[in-house]
Design brief:
It is elongated, with a radius of gyration of 61 Å. About 45% of the residues lie in helices and about 20% in strands. A 6-stranded antiparallel beta sheet has the order 3-4-2-5-1-6. The chain has helices at about 1-5, 10-65, 70-75, 80-95, 95-105, 110-115, 190-200, 225-235, 260-275, 300-315, and strands at about 180-185, 205-225, 245-250, 250-260, 280-300, 320. By secondary structure, the protein is an alpha+beta fold. The chain starts with a helix and ends with a strand. It folds into 2 domains: about 1-105; about 110-320, no CATH class.
């Protein structure tokens, strides 16, 4: 029994109580270690926030503050262009106006008479043996008389020169066997000019009509049937008052004029071309009544030659003819 009493649970119980008492001490130590780790985590988080805030300030706030003062200079640069716009306006207004005024002079209708006055005097024809009849009344200066048969429904005008100087019948020579011929002319302007030069020499000009073929240029509009030609002529009468027709067989050719001077014909054609009228040049030879301007009555050829030289010195080219 003693042995049984010795074998009891008292000792093990005391041992277990001591074990239980030591266990909470270990747990307390563990709790103390967990608190320090939390503190470390908080410090790390705080440090991370500081770093993130510093990076945000450095990369986001600092560039915006630096770029602020650089903007104002752009406003100053844009101000001056107003001066450049005002400069080119002045020269543009001054240039175009003089060009229009320079292109406007000289209507083209009148040059026909002025240019036609330039041709040199034509050689004199053979002197007339008897006084010729007074020339028929004339109309246009630089126009030709149609040769062919005119249209029956609209007669063609006779377009010859218009003499301003009255024809003087040649007076019988009082013993003079020679006289001087200053030229034979178609245009009234040439007759007037030469007659004035003869009077300046102290002689009275004598005009004698002479029939002669003259080279001319006609401006043809086209060839039509008689009815179409009459309609076309009526249509253009206000624009081309000198239009006329010449019958050739069963057709009629319309012409706007005939010119002694080719340059005058082409200038007139250019004028009508701008109005939509296209013309063709047609060279012709037309018999016209010209005026021979002669002066003086000389007994000898030597006396006539002396006056001829005097006339040449004053711009009159004369030839000696026998009466």
């Amino acid at each position: 029994m003693a042995d049984q009493d010795d074998f009891s649970f008292d000792e093990p119980g005391s041992d277990s109580e001591e074990w239980v008492e030591e266990e909470p001490k270990k747990k307390k130590k563990k709790r103390g270690g967990g608190g320090s780790s939390r503190t470390r985590l908080q410090l790390l988080l705080l440090l991370l926030l500081v770093l993130v805030g510093g990076a945000y300030y450095y990369f986001m706030v600092m560039p915006g503050a630096d770029s602020g003062p650089a903007a104002p200079p752009k406003v100053v640069v844009k101000a001056p262009p107003k001066k450049k716009i005002a400069m080119p306006d002045a020269p543009k207004k001054a240039v175009p106006q003089p060009v229009k005024e320079a292109a406007a002079p000289a209507p083209v209708e009148k040059p026909a008479e002025q240019v036609a006055a330039k041709p040199a005097p034509e050689p004199a024809a053979a002197p007339a043996s008897a006084p010729a009849p007074v020339p028929a009344p004339a109309k246009e200066v630089a126009k030709a008389e149609p040769v062919a048969t005119p249209m029956p429904d609209s007669p063609v005008k006779q377009e010859v020169f218009e003499p301003a100087v009255k024809t003087i019948a040649p007076a019988p020579a009082t013993g003079g066997a020679y006289s001087l011929v200053a030229g034979t002319f178609l245009l009234d302007s040439s007759i007037k000019r030469t007659s004035k030069q003869v009077r300046a020499l102290g002689y009275e000009p004598v005009l004698t009509p002479v029939k002669q073929k003259v080279k001319m240029t006609r401006l043809a509009l086209g060839t039509f049937s008689p009815a179409a030609a009459a309609a076309k002529k009526a249509e253009l009468k206000s624009t081309v008052p000198d239009i006329f027709g010449i019958r050739k067989g069963d057709k009629v050719t319309l012409y706007v004029g005939s010119f002694v001077n080719l340059d005058s014909a082409r200038r007139y054609a250019d004028k009508l071309y701008k109005q939509g009228i296209i013309l063709m040049e047609e060279p012709v030879q037309v018999e016209q009544t010209l005026q021979q301007v002669s002066f003086g009555s000389f007994a000898s050829k030597e006396a006539a030659a002396d006056v001829k030289n005097e006339a040449a010195a004053k711009g009159v080219k004369a030839t000696i003819v026998s009466n």
